[in-house]
Amino acid sequence: MTQPHIMLVDGMALLFRSYHATAPMNQFFRKKDGTPTNGVQGFARHVLSAQSIMNPTHLAICWDMGSQTFRNDLFEGYKAHRPEPPEEMKPQFDLARQISDLIGWKSFGQVGMEADDTIGSLVEKWKSDARITVISGDKDLLQLLNPNTTIALTKKGYSEYNPYTIERFEEEYAIAPERFADVKAFMGDSGDGYPGVKGIGPKTALQLIQKYGTVEGVLASIDELTPGQRKKIEADEEMLKLSLQLARIKTDLMIETTVDELALPTWNEEKFERLMAEEYSLVVRHITSLMR
Questions:
Q1: Which whole-number Å values give the CA distances from 68 to 56, 80, 118, in the listed order?
Q2: pLDDT value for 264
Q3: Total-model pTM
Q4: 93 C-beta neighbours (distance < 10 Å), count
């Protein structure tokens, strides 16, 4: 039996990417009632293109479920600096899930968790039984790499990707993928709003993990560090440990599904008609062009 190839899509990443690709030009592709659909239709077109490029046998879309997660409970400043979504974006979160259902893509997400955690848990669930390709723009997901999983980072448009395998990652970083979170714990993440250790940047963070293996390994060997490094780490030790919790993607969520439930949807005239009735003509045209 041929091993399934599952494509896991970071729905939030593609939705935001698609929205911001067209919003600056005021291209909102509004429905007759004024509802903007630029993010929704861009998201669907991106997934369809990725499907044609990656040729999976199965597919799932993963979503954030609300803006508050367990990471906000751990650290009040987590993503706190991010602005509210633009008004034109707000109705498109629900529409993106609706168009996924209409097309026949299976969606997953848990309240209090991020899409990353759902992706991580699905990778863990099937890493021994399937080949997996993750579609996202988020480098944090590199910590999920394993011999059967590729992380395809979005690069340009709908068709260009920067793919990472475990071999490429280990060659570039000289650490195991699961230690990427330890690097992030030292350097912090300005996008997610946690500081790590002040004064330790990406280069030093990576060198520390290359030498000592983990955050715990660095702390156990702190007397071997330079006086400057030791002073910085001791001053921010609690934030370092907290940053590690924030940087680690959860892989233990209970997700009730089977691979068979993720089988690629089929196309028929009724589905095209429903998409047109919902005023998603750009998506219909995109599908038609891919099927030629």
A1: 32, 10, 15
A2: 97
A3: 0.96
A4: 18
